[in-house]
Design brief:
The chain is of the alpha/beta class. Helices cover 42% and strands 18% of the residues. The radius of gyration is 19 Å and the shape is globular.
């Protein structure tokens, strides 16, 4: 089967403004959503209608593309993309902390009936018990963890990966916000605050990153190598939880006066060869998703 073009992918992600609260996103977020969209389709097919999808930081279910000059001006958020997958997933379980987002997501999920479960709560304190109560231990389950900064604690990732009541490990798709947030807390010119050190410790699960940081401050490690080392440390920790792990860079596209630059990495973890194979194909494929902002259509059309 011929791969979908970027134009086709955006058309499938496109949504109408329903007047409810929508999350503003920059154009590079379209690549994250496209990655999820493509993977969930393959995942649902492989699961034969038995698959569950969990979104630990779900948002309102609709995104507004900032700076868009042409459609799509709005795209479905991750919860609605998962529920719209063909073939269907069995159920989507969504957790969101922001009251305004919860209200909007519940209204957008009404048309999916019992296939959608929306709860208000915090990913670190509430997600584990929500998964235990809503997802059968033998069912396939993909869990998206999509933080904007270092708020996702390692203890949450580890607890989800090692749930005692599950006969089948959760698949995890984790946003690792390296350039977008983490490096901004790692001041090179001044001492880091105790608060920021504790936040990064909680995200990595230990203090091992500190040696890389100090080498970077002393000029012994170049910025590009330090970034690679931070990512390798995180992915190695995930791998030690019993997973096959791969990652994908998300890069902000070139805009007038601004060059391309990394934003974050998507880290995918699975214990199932089929999931690893599907995501390998998704991660390797090129996207041209910036034309709503740049106005230049992709050549692949």
């Amino acid at each position: 089967m011929k791969p979908k073009s970027s134009d086709q992918i955006l058309a499938e992600m496109q949504a109408d403004d329903d007047g409810l609260f929508a999350r503003p996103i920059k154009v590079h977020t379209l690549e994250k959503l496209a990655t999820l969209h493509l993977y969930v389709g393959g995942y649902a097919s492989a699961c034969g209608g038995r698959g569950y999808y969990v979104d630990g930081m779900a948002g309102p279910g609709l995104c507004r593309v900032l700076g868009a000059k042409q459609p799509p001006f709005f795209v479905h958020g991750s919860p609605v993309l998962a529920l719209r997958a063909k073939p269907q997933i069995r159920r989507g379980v969504f957790l969101e902390q922001n009251p305004r987002s919860v209200t909007a997501l519940r209204q957008r999920c009404e048309r999916f009936g019992a296939r959608a479960v929306v709860h208000r709560g915090d990913v670190n304190s509430d997600l584990l018990k929500l998964v235990r109560s809503e997802v059968p231990g033998g069912a396939p389950c993909l869990c998206l963890l999509d933080p904007e900064g270092p708020e996702l604690k390692w203890q949450t990732v580890r607890a989800l990966a090692t749930m005692s009541n599950r006969r089948r490990k959760l698949e995890l798709l984790v946003l690792f916000p390296l350039d977008m947030a983490i490096l901004r807390l790692m001041s090179i010119s001044t001492e880091m605050s105790t608060e920021n050190i504790e936040r990064i410790d909680a995200m990595f699960g230990d203090h091992g990153w500190w040696d890389i940081y100090q080498s970077r401050r002393r000029g012994q490690v170049k910025p590009s190598l330090a970034k690679r080392m931070y990512l390798d440390m995180y992915t190695s920790n995930v791998q030690e939880l019993g997973y096959q792990v791969q990652s994908k860079r998300i890069i902000a596209p070139r805009r007038w006066g601004i060059g391309r630059h990394e934003m974050y990495h998507l880290v995918f973890a699975t214990a199932h060869p089929t999931g690893d194979k599907i995501m390998t194909g998704v991660f390797k494929r090129p996207f041209a998703l910036d034309f709503p902002v740049t106005g230049q259509r992709p050549l692949e059309m």
